[in-house]
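Before going further, it is useful to explain how the protein records used in this thesis are read. An example of such a record is reproduced below.

***
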Amino acid sequence: MIGIGADEPVPGRLIAVEGLDGSGKSTQIYLLKRWLEMKGLKVFFSEWNSSFLVKKATSKGKKRQLLTPTTFSLIHSTDFADRYERQILPLLKAGFIVLCDRYIYTAFARDAVRGCPRPWLHKLYSFARKPDITFFFNTPLQTALGRILGGRPQLKYHEAGMDLGLSRDPYESFSLFQGKIYQEYLAMKDGYSFEEIDGTALIETQQQQVREIVGERIDLARFRRRSSI
C-alpha cells in the first residue's frame, strides 16, 4: 500500500493497547507514556482516527451518514496509513518506543462486525508491522458499558452502531454493537498473542502489570535520550 515491508527490522519498539470503549486502555497507555517519559526514554504516542489529512472527510461522511461499511473501513485505513507512514514507522526507524492507543485490531474487530470480510481486512492492513507488545484490556461488557454510558449524555450515530440496524434505540444498539466487538476481540486474542490484562482490576494493579511486561520484553535502557550536556 505504501511500499514499506511489514517485517522490516527497526531499532524502535511498538506497543499497542486494545479493548472495548470503556475498558480502561486509554488510561493505561497514558500512564505508561508518563512512566517512560519520566525515565528519560524516547517515546511517541499515536491514537486511532487522528490523522489531520483525513479527519475532515471522516467527520463530513459521519455527519451526513453517507458511509457504507466498506467506505467506513477504507477511510479509517487511510487515516491509519497516513499516520503509519508519516509518524509511526519513521519514529520506529529513529529508535523510539511508539505507543498506539488502538491499532489495526480495532479495525479487524469493528469492521468485521459491520460485515467486511476478514481476509479483505487483513490484506488491507498487511503493510502494518505487528506490535512488539499488544495489551488487551479484557473488561466485561456490562462494566465497560457502564463506564461509557455513565458519562455520555448522547451517543453518536456510528459510535452506537446505528448504521447496522441493530436497534432503533441508540443505547440498546450500542450495547449490541459493543457485544459483537467484544466477541471479535476474544476470537483474536490468542492468534495475535495479546497480553491480556484484567480490566476490572485496580488501575494501579493494571499499570504495575503493564510496566512489568514492558520491562521484561524491552531493553528500556537502549531508548534513553542522550544528554545534551
